[in-house]
Specification:
- The protein is mainly alpha-helical and 210 residues long.
- 78% of the residues lie in helices and 0% in strands.
- It is built from seven helices and no strands.
- The longest helix is centred in the last third of the chain and has 79 residues.
- The chain starts with a helix and ends with a helix.
Length: 210
């Protein structure tokens, strides 16, 4: 099987051609001859971490308590409304004439006018808050997109590291072992050991990034 075929098998089928190319480029830059693997993907990892903390802080700082209080106040006022208060105890004309009603219709009307005014005030406050919520929602949506971009970039590094590991495990190291067995070259044997150690560190770094 060709190296290109191995690469296609190692990469996720969910990736588009552009992503696959980017991953292959990152993978080709992984140098098993130095210690750069210790900081592999660190900058993107840091950006994602800092951004996530900032995003969390922004969400936590949003003053949604006032909105919740206004809605609670609205429900209290609505619950105070009892349509039965606008009815007399019964429809007997004589009881009405002599004022034997559950509550004066005038008192009830005045109460409902007051409740209506209070509800209008609360509704105006909620309406003024609505624009703020719309803006906050847009901001959070923009933050989500930016966060997703960081996340996707980090996944590129993870996939590239896995691709490199697969190449080392399935191609590079087995080929070196086959050559070493034929030549019994001690330098080749040491190189294999170094590559195996590097591969283990790369797998550890991939786990850390995940």
């Amino acid at each position: 099987m060709t190296s290109e075929a191995n690469t296609d098998l190692a990469l996720s089928s969910n990736l588009n051609p552009e992503q696959k190319q980017k991953i292959q480029e990152l993978s080709s830059k992984i140098n098993e001859k130095d210690d750069s693997i210790l900081t592999y993907g660190a900058e993107t990892q840091k950006q994602l971490s800092v951004f996530s903390q900032n995003m969390l802080a922004k969400v936590q700082s949003q003053d949604t308590g006032a909105i919740g209080q206004e809605l609670s106040n609205l429900m209290v006022k609505l619950n105070e409304a009892n349509p039965d208060e606008l009815r007399a105890e019964n429809n007997n004309i004589f009881r009405k004439i002599f004022g034997h009603v559950k509550r004066s219709i005038y008192e009830a009307t005045a109460k409902y006018q007051k409740i209506g005014a209070q509800i209008d005030t609360i509704a105006n406050r909620l309406d003024s808050t609505k624009d703020g919520l719309i803006n906050d929602n847009k901001t959070l949506n923009d933050l989500y997109i930016q966060n997703k971009n960081y996340f996707d970039d980090l996944n590129m590094y993870i996939e590239a590291a896995k691709l490199k590991t697969n190449e080392l495990r399935t191609t590079t190291i087995p080929n070196l072992k086959a050559d070493a067995e034929k030549s019994n070259d001690q330098m080749a044997i040491q190189k294999i050991k170094d590559l195996e150690d590097f591969t283990s560190r790369l797998e550890k770094r991939t786990y850390d990034l995940e």
